[in-house]
């Protein structure tokens, strides 16, 4: 327990150090940033550094220890710049969230995708500098995610991957603190702008605490989803306030680009970037600035990594596979589509006689998909809507939040981009956890558009009502985790038990090729933390070559 708290606290300091570094170098208005801003920026900063260095070296445990040591040093170096922003309340909030993260982390079991492709992907980053044609090794490693890149820097000791999920704990702390800070800053202000920011922050905080109270439920979806939700909050600040307008736009762009590189389905929201540039009249001091350079480089590093893995700039779009390199093979895209149709559109639950292609055409899959996901949809909607309607029932007599005509076009732009996101998500990969943030955003802004929030209790005058809902969500969080811990009473260690699978090794191409020996237990049929290079199947269809610069190439035998 002490080890977890110490490591988490030190990395929290490291994160804040890198958040301060990137803000001081690339954001001119950095003196206006709060701790919650720098913590969110730190994830972006470390993802940028990790992806860049991986082009040249492996992200080894020694590299990670040095990286975090520098982060703690940066935090101390810049301490004078933010010490005035720290007070007893903020220390209490962060300390409370740290202990809640401990409860959430204690004895957790990794999620279903962790051993399948999360951990093997991280093992690859920790073992080798960037691998050309990585998609040939395993279907699920064909598309990269900045969140998995970021996970790789939580590998601290040789052959010990138990600290990886500390990243999810830190995201819980940073995201919760972000919304709590917004709530505190806006709850006692009577202006329209503050009321909508308060309500937005409160609604999405409650859902975050209730729905994502288990650390293994995060995967790569929750971080991508909630960083997008945070980006929309920054966009709201951008359109609502005249002061610090450029700062809010920059923070919006950073969070949006980051969310896209975690989950590509977020890309339609980028329409708001062009709308924002139009609103500020394409200011040259923004477009031709260090900030623009870092934003472009960040996205470029991600797309270059994707191209090196698959031969496509943005996978799985065939249109972006313009210059097909030697490691590209087109059948991979077809394999991906098959996997998407079969799993994400519930073909596995279909009992009819249609083929997979026939099942996919003309939205024939919708009834089966709906039946398969009905319970999850209901649970999701109850978790999100219950606090909203409860506040409506407890509403006051005064008008709280009416639709503001001055911002009608900006809110329509938000709604339009969200609707496009939902259409793209629903057609391509309608997994609830991958698109629930779009649905929540659509519900929130639709309710706002119909003046649903008119008769709502004023936060300052009725803070007990909001406090009760918040406390209930915390109790739910604690109770759910205590139940999990009691159910897994055999797990006496705070750290997770990672599956150790059996494998056979064959030396070929000057590499140890490790093939998993599969059993009837599904968890033993994937690589987990098996040393590089590992694969669930055989290697007969692959050729490995290493060039004179030490880069490894994987080719599919045609």
Name some characteristics of this structure.
single chain, about 550 residues, mainly alpha, three-stranded mixed beta sheet, 20 helices, 5 strands
Structure in a nutshell:
By secondary structure, the chain is mainly alpha-helical. It is 59% helix and 4% strand.
Write structural notes for this entry.
The chain has 558 residues and is mainly alpha-helical. Among the domains are: 2-309, no CATH class; 330-363, no CATH class. It is built from 20 helices and 5 strands. It has helices at 2-26, 35-54, 61-77, 79-82, 88-105, 114-127, 146-151, 166-186, 192-211, 221-240, 245-262, 271-279, 284-287, 290-310, 331-344, 356-360, 366-393, 408-428, 432-449, 463-487; strands at residues 503-508, 511-516, 534-535, 542-546, 552-556. The mean pLDDT is 90.
Question: Topology of this structure?
Answer:
Blueprint: H1 2-26, H2 35-54, H3 61-77, H4 79-82, H5 88-105, H6 114-127, H7 146-151, H8 166-186, H9 192-211, H10 221-240, H11 245-262, H12 271-279, H13 284-287, H14 290-310, H15 331-344, H16 356-360, H17 366-393, H18 408-428, H19 432-449, H20 463-487, E1 503-508, E2 511-516, E3 534-535, E4 542-546, E5 552-556
Parallel strand pairs: 2-3
Antiparallel strand pairs: 1-2, 4-5
